[in-house]
Predict the 3D structure of the following.
Amino acid sequence: MKHLLVIVSVFFAVQLAAQSRYESGMQKGLEQLKEAKTADDMIAASGFFERIADAEKDKWLPYYYAAYANHISGWMNAKADKDKVSEKTKDLLGKAEAIERNSDTYCLRQMVAVMQMTVDPMARYQSYGAEAANALASAKKADPANPRVYLIEGQYMKNVPEAFGGGKAVAKKLAEKSLELFATAKPASPFHPSWGKDQAEQLLAACQ
Amino acid sequence: MSHQNKNEMKKLTLLALLVLLTTLVNAQVKITGTVKDAKGHVIPGANVAIRGSYDGTTADSSGMFSFKTTEKGDQVLVASSIGYKTAEQAIRIEKADLSFLFALKEEVSELKAVTVTAGSFEAGDKKRAATVLSSLDILTTGGANADITAVVKTLPGAQQVGEQEGLFVRGGAGYEAKQFIDGTLVNNPFQASVPDIASRGRFSPSIFKGTIFSTGGYSALYGQALSSALIMESIDIPDRSEATVSLSTVFVGAGMQKVAEDKKSSWGVNYGYTNLIPYFAVVKQKPDYFRIPQFHSADGNFRFKTKKGGMVKYYTTFGASDLGLRRENINDALLKNAFGLRNTNWYNNLSLRESLGNGWKLNLGLSYSTDHSKLQNQIQDQNNNPYTSGMVWIDSTNFNLTTRADLSQVKAVFDKRLSGISVIRFGGEYMYFYNTNLYNGYKSSLTDHFKSLFSEADLYITNDLAAKVGARFEHSSLINKANIAPRLSLGYKTGKGAQMGLAYGIFYQKPENSYLYATTNFGYTKATHYILNYIKNTTLQTFRAEVFYKKYEDLVKTFPTYNNAGTGDAKGVEFYWRDKKTFKGLDYWISYSYLDTKRDYLNYPRELQPGFAANHTASLVLKKFVNSINTGFNFTYSFATGRPYYNLVKNGNQYNIADEGKTINYNNLGFSMNYLTKMGKAYAVVVASVTNVLDSKQIFGYNYSYNGARKEAIQPPAPQFFFVGLFLSWGVDRRDDAINNNL
């Protein structure tokens, strides 16, 4: 009986340690992400999340953040080869999607497609533009209340000429819709994606 | 609490303390090292970690890494980087710091692997390494008026031939270049034409997602083209439903494309009507059109995805044209040639792409086309009445000709993925050609059961070295002869984005029907290609240089008898530079071709530079889109040195060159602009274009009178072509509705 008690308590202790390892790891990663100032910082954060993900294997969030941080690094470094960065982002995102596919993974798909489109917009609009549109539609279908869906749509629409149904007026409405949803949005856990409110505010300001 | 229990508690506390202490007091060990590839080049940004732990780091720009860990004992150190095989090292962590060197092996992947590109230009976004032209490029090339062939002519290897349609590639005649849609041969890719005036292609560039222009050395999947293959792949399910209306100075059109809600199927129809009456009323033409050109064209399509993720596509197009024109008779200035042409053409293409499981894929193509033409030439007097001169060289040019050309074909290609990304491909095709001719009441016909078998392997030996090896067997029942054509090409990566290519191949083509009507006692004409190329590619820039040698054998001779005694060769060097980077917002390309070719064919008395070949050809294409005014400006400047012309006159049992010369240089500046806007709910594009902006004099060759006393320059029917059009599209897309409903 006592031995069982020992075994059970040791088992829980180990579980607890593992749990707190993941939690403290994620926490550390998210802080690193928040404080990243350069593309290299972002790549480092991405690498850290990738290590968590590879160690945990069954959690989509660290892969998602690894992909997200890597993606952002592509925007932070103007000289980055955006196709190469996106290749890596898609590799990481694919691993997240293999565990769970949801509105936020679709959002990131859209963001990657947009990044690759910007490399050569005239030539790539038809392929990557369509990919972005499909990802956005899936993101919206998966969770119509995800504020990031309208944020990334607004960011995209702002740069689409009015002649093609875009422009500031359209983007403004989407930024407002996004902010409205941010006001009530509750991430499923402290580690679930919650970014975007600042960007939505910036977008709204830029559309005034 | 008993004594024993107390003891147990003590033990537990001790255990907990121990656990705590080991974590707290654990001395950290530093692990350092470098990550390189197999060749010793550093791999920046590789991820290095101890498996199962969070400890690790990302290698810096010099491939170095350094991190501290609290892990102890036997562990596995893992280094990974995208595009490389992950490497592992078993390590034992004790107290001392550790240092490691990783050498990662490259993974052979489609993205990284060298592409075999010698001789071909790939348009589309499929493989970056070979991407040169997209379908948008075709729509926005100045002066090309959205004609695929016109744009392809701005690439190296193609001649600026303006008096007849077709691609004249590297010393090859127009009929030596064939067009393929989704794998199957297109029998009449151009609108029916009258002598000395080139016609447009039948197909709209917007139905294709990619076009490969091969100037030689192409795959064993294609045959019966001595010099070039234009391989077009149609789009799958379009992005969205839309309705379109086009209005322009020469045509009106309307269309509809419907995409199912689940995006798994779509269908569409289009109709267009071209009438040049208003245009010719304003812009004077040199010939006297007694039937001003009119064209009807209708097309339809459906496409759906199969359950296994395959694709079925059907495309059909019907065209009818009518025109008639009078030109002065070269033998007698008081007489006229009245030439009339009516044509109908119906083209059908059904293709299936399906995965058969276990790495097998099937591509099946079926096509049927039937083309009917009625042509007549009538000698007329000044009052446009039929006239009989009594002189045989004039009266014999009167004719009535009715032709029919049918082609039914089926082609199956099986694809099997080998280890890595290597692929083996094989299959066969059967083509049934049926042609009839009714010439001044005299009927003749030709039928050909044409069969071929082919096999080809794409072998990726490493990321840096790839080979395409293939062979093709063909048999034509019409000439009752078979051939075997080997093909080989290699690609070798010489550096970042740079590669060398090599291609060799034998190409056979049966003689044109016009000669086969005289006799079927012919063999295949033959060309052997040798190509060496170099490509340097970055995302926004492409440089390409190519040298080639092409040997012609067994070309058709029509004098003194019809036989295969013709010979020839072509050699040259070509350059291509495309740049979207240097000047912000400006996309431009430059191509230059040098060609040295001679051939003895048809009635040539000896090897001569053929009339369709210029020694130097160059094009400069500029495209600039000005975002602030939503307008694109496109310029194309084409230049070619003069082409030779000959007056071959029969003298006894020999043809002599009675007169010869070179035409003036060819210059053409084309311009187009497109303005994007919105009209009501419709997206609108306003297009304005003009060819030969500078009004340069263009002479493509000369026609001679019967006695050689008179020679007449062959010129375009009008020096310039002006076009203004409005294209409207209404996207009936549910996504837009969804946005609006949500806002």
Notes: Chain A has nine helices and no strands. The radius of gyration of chain A is 19 Å.
